[in-house]
Write a structure and sequence with these properties.
Blueprint lengths: L1 H24 L6 H12 L14 H21 L2 E4 L2 E4 L3 H21 L5 H37 L6
Length: about 160
């Protein structure tokens, strides 16, 4: 139970950090790197599966991927980019912050329920798969929106020199 409490507290702290970063990033122009790098950095977490304690069954992988894809739809829907001052910015959205908070609550509830029947290591692996399956489609769609707006700026000749 201690592991569940500590990991849940860590998840809440990380969510607060992500929210703060998101709010601050709305004030700075978006870039390809800012969109693409988070999934690349997170991908290193896949090394956890080297250790048997984190390995999950194919059914658990499918469940985690499906849940991640469903949650990614919420993030995709609430993430908006806009052109301001001839730059592309992430549009500040309270809805996004609410969706993020709701996803964390769902995750904490699921962890409490699943921790009774699934080993903590497997559960950690499943939640990493869920998070990665949520992050990748969201960032792909964000990148596609970014490229579309960048082409729009190029066509109008308003793209700043970088």
């Amino acid at each position: 139970m201690f592991v569940i409490i500590v990991s849940s507290a860590f998840a809440v702290i990380m969510t607060i950090i992500v929210m703060i970063i998101r709010i601050k990033s709305a004030g700075r122009p978006a870039s390809s790197a800012k969109i693409i790098l988070p999934p690349l950095f997170m991908s290193t977490g896949g090394l956890m599966f080297i250790f048997p304690v984190f390995r999950v069954s194919p059914a658990q992988i499918a469940e985690a991927v499906l849940a991640g894809l469903i949650f990614s739809l919420l993030l995709i829907k609430t993430t908006k980019l806009e052109i301001r001052e001839n730059e592309i910015f992430l549009k500040r959205s309270n809805t996004f912050l609410i969706v993020l908070a709701v996803l964390v609550v769902i995750r904490l509830f699921a962890k409490l329920v699943l921790s009774k029947s699934v080993d903590p290591g497997e559960l950690g692996g499943m939640f990493w798969i869920l998070a990665f399956s949520m992050l990748v489609p969201w960032r792909i769609m964000m990148y596609r929106k970014f490229r579309r707006l960048r082409l729009e700026l190029q066509k109008t000749g308003k793209l700043p020199v970088s």
